[in-house]
Amino acid sequence: MTTTRYEQGWRKLMEVDGEGGQRVIDSLGDIAPDLGRYVVEFAFGDIYSRPGLDLKQRQLVTLAALTAQGGCEPQLNVHLNAALNVGLTPAEIVEALMHCIPYTGFPRVLNAVFTAKKVFQERGVL
Amino acid sequence: MTTTRYEQGWRKLMEVDGEGGQRVIDSLGDIAPDLGRYVVEFAFGDIYSRPGLDLKQRQLVTLAALTAQGGCEPQLNVHLNAALNVGLTPAEIVEALMHCIPYTGFPRVLNAVFTAKKVFQERGVL
Amino acid sequence: MTTTRYEQGWRKLMEVDGEGGQRVIDSLGDIAPDLGRYVVEFAFGDIYSRPGLDLKQRQLVTLAALTAQGGCEPQLNVHLNAALNVGLTPAEIVEALMHCIPYTGFPRVLNAVFTAKKVFQERGVL
Amino acid sequence: MTTTRYEQGWRKLMEVDGEGGQRVIDSLGDIAPDLGRYVVEFAFGDIYSRPGLDLKQRQLVTLAALTAQGGCEPQLNVHLNAALNVGLTPAEIVEALMHCIPYTGFPRVLNAVFTAKKVFQERGVL
Amino acid sequence: MTTTRYEQGWRKLMEVDGEGGQRVIDSLGDIAPDLGRYVVEFAFGDIYSRPGLDLKQRQLVTLAALTAQGGCEPQLNVHLNAALNVGLTPAEIVEALMHCIPYTGFPRVLNAVFTAKKVFQERGVL
Amino acid sequence: MTTTRYEQGWRKLMEVDGEGGQRVIDSLGDIAPDLGRYVVEFAFGDIYSRPGLDLKQRQLVTLAALTAQGGCEPQLNVHLNAALNVGLTPAEIVEALMHCIPYTGFPRVLNAVFTAKKVFQERGVL
């Protein structure tokens, strides 16, 4: 059953984060493999696999949570790619980040938008 | 034109936050009326009035940003009401808050869910 | 196996948080029972049940993480009780909170210490 | 010499925070008296006693730091009183809080302004 | 009138942030031009253009808000330059950052001071 | 006596942080020497020199406080070295960081673990 949560989580991680997610898990292999396992089993196997919100909605929530916290640029990079992977357009992503301004102020949003700029350039969608 | 931004923002504030938003603006009247004006003009007249995301999507982003920041329970109260106002179901709202767990940890989500519990009880939707 | 993680987590939750933890899980029953389940299965079944640090060490880490984040007074209440439950003395707990001053500044520590004062009074250890 | 830092700090604490500061120190007496001592010696004896900025400037910095962090309403209460004590007008205080909007967003500023409203009412300056 | 807010904001942005501010607006041009527009119109046209505090006082508040939030080093870079532009001395700036220690702890202040070190070196004032 | 606090603090800083701590103090020499002095006198002379918790316990608290705050990677680098210096094993350190997941979410812990990976590689303990 742990295997099932892991397998379920891995499929979801691949669907959402793709290569960027796999790279994070791989880079944890020699220092904290169980941390990678919990990302797969809990974040993706338990949470992302729930019904109730579709993947576009989940990425809107994720982008806002990461933007608001600050200091999560590496995770924003992964999840900006994920947002594109699940079908949000660059314009929708930028709109979601800009919607955070009244709640987080400009600095958090500027940091997120400049991270998005790099991701969009790498993906050739800017 | 300032009038127009204010009028546009006020209509949007009423549509989204309703009474809860009006109470915030009113309570600022004797200490910082311009703060209330900026909430109306900038947050609602400029940001909420943009196309690109619908009001349900904007409330998902708002709930996540407020949950992730912490210490925003009064604003969560207003925007949990707003989320219901624009048509998100209680189940979708709880799902959005739970989606934040991997990004914010349990304490921020517990605080948000207990705020939601009060709002849902007041609205008779729990 | 999910049952086993839940059972393992529940025993650990009872051992660490006791009644305070049970109250949190119970109060989630009508709004977000799965959130309570994840606290049991993931936080206590997966993380707290790991070897490598004993429960006193885990509570030192927990208190510091909650103090540093801010806005987690309800969770600090539960985990200050937990710290006493696993055998940390009131003096050790206060020392751990004071050790945070250089890292978090005084306000976060003052909020935590005043929460500790209430808990210690309720437990009759002040 | 510790006595000197303490004495210097106590005079500065009385000058800046007045009764509100004394109440905080007193309330720490039975749980963490050394925490109170460090507030006096370090925050007020070392930092507030430095030349280079006057007390009005220091309170502007303090109010912004507390507003931006969030969850520091009890400390904001003390330091909004302090801001009045050192000669900032209610209008200057509100202006400083409103200046934070672009950097922190509206929720942090709303929490601070509503705390200011209570303080100004208690002080009869609203 | 929107034009007027923009023009007013642009003049203020040039007066305060100078080139560093212009670079931020320019770099948003291809991904989120409206974000740049809001920085000009709202942050500088509305907020910075208000009476009630002079520009030195506003930069003290800005530096404290950015230091306290953490993760805002790019914005601190711009506003440390701005602080010099409006006439604060390097010593006053460092003093303001050090005044934050009791409220934010050492790490946030160290990050801000090391950012100041780079800015002061670039400006030839260290 | 100030001398004594400084001397006491310096010895403790050397014992705990070693070279990494000295480098921080040195790099403050030309911009904010008093900031370095307060780190030595207050953080190490006052706080770290207290009885009540041993140095391993203090580093567990430190790592959690820095991880939870976010944006403190430079300070985590110093204190991950310190954690090794006072005798915590790499496995215990990783365990302490992973224990933060339920309280801070994955992004803060991932940032801390990747900082630990660099430190452990430099120290040849990975």
From TrEMBL, chains A, B, C, D, E, F:
GO molecular function, one term: peroxiredoxin activity
Residues annotated as domain Carboxymuconolactone decarboxylase-like: 33-116
Pfam family, one: CMD
InterPro entries noted in UniProt: 4CMD/NDH-1_regulator (IPR052512), AhpD-like (IPR029032), CMD-like (IPR003779)
Name of the protein described by the UniProt record: Carboxymuconolactone decarboxylase family protein
Species this chain originates from: Cohnella candidum
